[in-house]
Amino acid sequence: MEQVKDKISPLNQSLTLPCGITLPNRIAKSAMSEQLADRHGSPTTDLQQLYAVWERGGTGLLITGNVMIDHRAFVEPRNVVLQDAQFLQAHRLWAQAAHANGSKIIMQINHPGRVAVLPLLNKPIAPSAVGLDLPAMNIIRIPREMTETEICEQIQRFATTASLAVEAGFDGVQVHAAHGYLISQFLSPLANTRTDQWGGSPENRRRILIETVAAVRQAIGKDKILSVKLNSADFQKDGLSQEESLQIALALERQEIDLLEISGGNYESPAQLGYAPDRHAQRDAYFLDYATALAQISKIPLMLTGGLRNVELMNNIVADGTVDLVGLARPFALQPDLAQQLLAGNLCPLQQQSPALDINRLMLIYSLHGMQLSFAVSVVVSNLNSLRACFIRWSHLRHVWDLIF
């Protein structure tokens, strides 16, 4: 971890990752699922413009939201999908929009596994035929257990999407292994009941993650960012524990990844939104205890996301070497120039959000019901106040309103 220079706030420090790419500061926009693709799954000009706004806001690292590796499995309507070069030019424009002022951008790549809700006629695939423990979410079907051939196919799809992302101009990729999606399902003793080499022991359950990381590294080379997003725990009885997650992190360190982002929870226990029963998820920096424990046994570059709202705490955990990057997501939807505010030493921008607007609750409803709640972006979005004022597409918010009442 880099030493902090005198008289410069820790968040203002640059960071050189193991691959050699240097981030201009220690603030990252963590992934949010924007749902701004066209009907083909190609990035729209709205999506490109949104990232141009965030890039102008001073963020050191931008992480895209939830790009699908397979057109047969979507989490939400209008997710971006990148599985071949057909619409690669749109991805090039997306990457270019995020590079104008020195920020770096990596593409989060993902397969939803059993939580896929689209296409409706496709039966979801998963490590085992174990459905979600969410009776109210009746649009989710019992998944079909993957064959070994299908597992190997999806590993290759991760690698293909990663290669295409780098070809389009992205600085690297983030493999999504958290929040109850496909790789996270393999890691979970509850979702993965296999008895072959892909299940059973902790080593077997993490095999798909390790092999995916190896395939992606081979696809993108050693000079691009390879990140993984990992649950600190699933926050479920008999689910993935913190102790096992720490061992997964050490295994990823041996794979020489460039950045590990820590989060937690899944659709059944959404700790990433602050609703886990565990006491650690009921405060600022939900997963700080895990990050502290990992920093004591590992030198892997670490990004902490989840509940970070105290700017003094952000500076302190970077300064003392607990983490290398701080990740924020929903605050950027309300305040797209948030990074500039933080880097300028403004200690209260996060406190200016209206407490009456419960973004956690709104996003929880959104994620559980698959509604197309997305950012309102247009050609006039260069006005930051316009983005803040209308960051939700109100025509879709009406459906969420109906669900609440």
From TrEMBL:
Keywords: Flavoprotein, Oxidoreductase. It comes from the Bacteria. GO terms for molecular function: FMN binding; oxidoreductase activity. Residues 21-342 form the NADH:flavin oxidoreductase/NADH oxidase N-terminal domain. Gene3D superfamilies: Aldolase class I (3.20.20.70). This is NADH oxidase. It comes from Acinetobacter bereziniae (Acinetobacter genomosp. 10).
